[in-house]
Amino acid sequence: MEKLTFYALSAPEKLDRIGAYLSERLIRDVGRHRYGYVCIAMEALDQLLMACHCQSINLFVESFLKMVAKLLESEKPNLQILGTNSFVKFANIEEDTPSYHRSYDFFVSRFSEMCHCSHDDLEIKTKIRMSGIKGLQGVVRKTVNDELQANIWDPQHMDKIVPSLLFNLQHVEEAESRSPSPLQAPEKEKENPAELAERCLRELLGRAAFGNIKNAIKPVLIHLDNHSLWEPKVFAIRCFKIIMYSIQPQHSHLVIQQLLSHLDANSRSAATVRAGIVEVLSEAAVIAATGSVGPTVLEMFNTLLRQLRLSIDYALTGSYDGAISLGTKIIKEHEERMFQEAVIKTIGSFASTLPTYQRSEVILFIMSKVPLPSLHHPMETGRTGENRNRLTQIMLLKSLLQVSTGFQCNNMMSALPSNFLDRLLSTALMEDAEIRLFVLEILISFIDRHGNRHKFSTISTLSDISVLKLKVDKCSRQDTVFMKKHSQQLYRHIYLTCKEETNIQKHYEALYGLLALISIELANEEVVVDLIRLVLAVQDVAQVNEENLPVYNRCALYALGAAYLNLISQLTTVPAFCQHIHEVIETRKKEAPYMLPEDVFVERPRLSQNLDGVVIEFLFRQSKISEVLGGSGYNSDRLCLPYIPQLTDEDRLSKRKSIGETISLQVEVESRNSPEKEERVPAEEITYETLKKAIVDSVAVEEQERERRRQVVEKFQKAPFEEIAAHCGARASLLQSKLNQIFEITIRPPPSPSGTITAAYGQPQNHSIPVYEMKFPDLCVY
User: Fold this and answer.
1) Is residue 635 within 8 Å of 526, Cβ to Cβ?
2) Number of Cβ atoms within 10 Å of the Cβ of 333
3) How many whole angstroms separate alpha carbon 261 and alpha carbon 615?
4) Where are the beta strands (DSSP E) in 338-476?
5) Which residue pairs, CB below 8 angstroms and at least 24 apart, start in 210-213?
6) What is the C-alpha separation between 609 and 714, in angstroms, rounded?
7) DSSP secondary structure code for residue 751 in this structure
8) What value does the mean pLDDT take over residues 90-105?
9) Could you tell me how far CA 599 lies from the centroid of its own chain?
């Protein structure tokens, strides 16, 4: 062997003849079953290959590969393993000269076939499978970075290599269960095809360039489809974790796009399959978010929301094509519900990894998809349409709640922009109690920036709120601007939500949490005053009961007011205010416990059947509160005013009235408010004659105006100075007299037509007509 190696190195032009001779001998010995000489020939070829790196080695390699192929074609396992080991040695050699005509198609096919070996002998099967995996690893190493070689990333090769590796990955649990004892575990691990396949797959994906990711991922998806591996989803998640941690971070979004496309392609598959794909997508997206998600953020959410709507349609219709026929696959509603929950969970888990600015975009995007009954967002009609609209609203609001949970934004104007807040609060006017509850929880998630939310999960009247250990910061300038702009809108929806008959304990807990968090996160003195007025107005709702609320709702409103005023009194730290609230609460504890949260918000509420005779000692009095807070610097004038919600056009967005009723209502209001009392004259019929008359009249008017201007100019040019001065003086004196009349009326207003009334202290008091009702004379200013 030493002499042969020396001769080959001395005369490299003879190397191809040496290879041809050895190849011929090996083929003959294989045919004659002389396996000893076969091993000698392969050993000689291996040593020559390792020693020689001359330019003529290409012809020798051809002979070598022909011999390896001959061994791999043999039915003897030992010869297959021998050929594989030789090929692996060859794959680790870096050649000095390129080869333009070498093909590895046979080796890819043969090694892939060996990876699927099903020999009866377990040890032989394991060895052949491992040889196949090593062979594929050798092919990848030899070809992946050489542009002159066959492109290993072509689908024809990837469709063989990737499924072969995944097939061996599937049997990892079987391989682990076969290890006889912990002492022999390290030796078994070395012989485990699953671990070798995982290493090979990681190496393959780590070498993948941008344009090759798609060809590498597609066989994985097809393999999981063909072997029904989405439903247990454990193996699928493991595969994609390997993929996401192996590829370059900047290629992560390509994998996400492949999964999204596959989800769309399987939109009519069973709900369990789609749920498995979504779970895998969730795991992959979280990993991808740490690298680079790229432009796929909104695309991902758009796909998930589209699948959510399709799932709602499937659950309502019971089939994938909208109509149940003889061959239609019946859909199980609970499986669709499981899929919907998986989608919502995925939306939340992925959104939690996004930066704030992207999260804000996602929140606006989801809100824009919520169907609202406004003139600009038509909704489906009919019973099926209403159910679809309701389910869509609930699912999208659930998704929005997932995204908003843990959302941290210092500027509330950015967190709750006007277009988003308007749409969100519009859903708070829905009749559906579940939708209203989601809206309240979403608002709480946005406003809670210091983690105080869980401290208000139960409604109570604590004598000392310091035990809650609240995190309170001073209201920032941006928050003050936000409240000035949107506070009345928030108060109005809180007030209207309190008046709903379908409210349950969760609604009142959410309302209490919202009021408390606004007081902690966004409150200045003006906001505190308005919140107190709002809660006192809610107390009046329970007392007057114009809405005919049930007994529980009225007791709940009394209890809600007591709990909030107890909290705000301790936050303001005004002793007289705290004392008044404490006295009313103590009176209720003794004589009316059904007006306190400890008796109302329990599993079995203890209520009073008669709330009409509530005495004033049980109520928080607005006059008393305004008096005590006015002495501490709060705006007592504003505190004295009862809260009345602003009338806006948002009612038209609620489900209470149809669009037709809303339009007719608006027309009726306009007709009532119009100053014209007479009946409207029907519009004149437009004909050719009327148009002609209008044109002629307009021409005549222009002529008259032109003539008047000409006369004025001529007068000032030709008239004597005295005449012009007298004319201008008369105009000036007329203007002055009118101004004098106005000043006289303003300084000394005329007495009221109703005469005088006696004030509270017995002194007569003149009431003047308000300025906006005065009849001012017409002013003619030239």
Assistant:
1) yes
2) 12
3) 67
4) none
5) 210/250, 210/251, 210/254, 212/153, 213/247, 213/251, 213/254, 213/255, 213/258
6) 90
7) E
8) 70
9) 39
CA dist 252 and 291 (Å) reads 7
Distances (CA, A) of 218 to 64, 228, 341, 476: 34, 15, 27, 52
Q: Residue 377 — φ and ψ, nearest 5°?
A: -130, 80
For residues 490 and 418, give the distance between their C-alpha atoms in angstroms, rounded to a whole number: 12
Q: Which position has the higher pLDDT, 768 or 106?
A: 106
Q: 3-class SS at 765?
A: strand
pLDDT single digits (tens) 455-467: 888 899 988 888 8
With a pLDDT cut of 90, the percent of the chain lying above it is 31
Give residue 663's pLDDT band: very low, low, confident or very high (50, 70, 90).
Answer: very low
Task: Compute φ and ψ for 751, nearest 5 degrees.
Answer: -65, 150
Which amino acid is present at 677?
K
* Structure letter (DSSP) for residue 753: E
B/e letters for 164-194, b = 16+ CB within 10 Å, e = fewer, are bbbbbbbbbeebeeebeeeeeeeeeeeebbb
Is residue 450 within 8 A of residue 473, CB to CB? The reply is yes
The CA-based dihedral angle spanning residues 382, 384, 390, 391, taken in that order and rounded to the nearest 10 degrees: -170
Under the banding of pLDDT at 50, 70 and 90, the label for residue 384 is: low
- Looking up tokens 């070798």 gives 196
3 state SS of 467: helix
At 769, list the tokens: 């007509």
| Res. 727: pLDDT tops 60 | yes
Whether the CB-CB separation of 418 and 399 falls below 8 Å is answered with no
CA 179 – CA 697 distance, rounded (Å): 107
Measured CA to CA, the distance from residue 746 to residue 61 in angstroms comes to: 112
Specify the amino acid at residue 531: L
Convert the pLDDT of each residue in 616-661 to its tens digit: 888 999 999 999 998 888 888 888 888 988 766 544 444 444 333 3
Structure tokens at 706: 């032109």
Collapsed DSSP state (helix, strand, coil) of residue 377: strand
Token readout for 353 is 């990894």
| Whole-number Å distance between alpha carbons of 539 and 560 | 9
User: Is residue 141 within 8 Å of 111, Cβ to Cβ?
Assistant: no
Closest CA to 251 of 299, 198, 296: 296
Q: How far apart are CA 325 and CA 336, in angstroms?
A: 20
In sequence order, what DSSP letters do the residues of 250-316 get, joined into one string? Answer: GGHHHHHHHHHHHHHHTTTS-HHHHHHHHHHHHHHHHHHHTS--TTHHHHHHHHHHHHHHHHHHHHH
Q: What is the pLDDT of residues 212-232, one digit of tens each?
A: 899 999 999 999 999 999 988
Residue type, 378: P
Looking up tokens 């090929």, which residue turns up? 87
Cβ(52)–Cβ(15) under 8 Å?
yes
- Is this structure's pTM higher than 0.85? no
**pLDDT for 22-78, tens place per residue?**
777 777 777 777 778 778 777 777 777 777 665 556 667 777 788 888 888 888 888
Best CA proximity match to 352, nearest among 290, 310, 261: 290
Specify the residue for token string 């709903």: 500
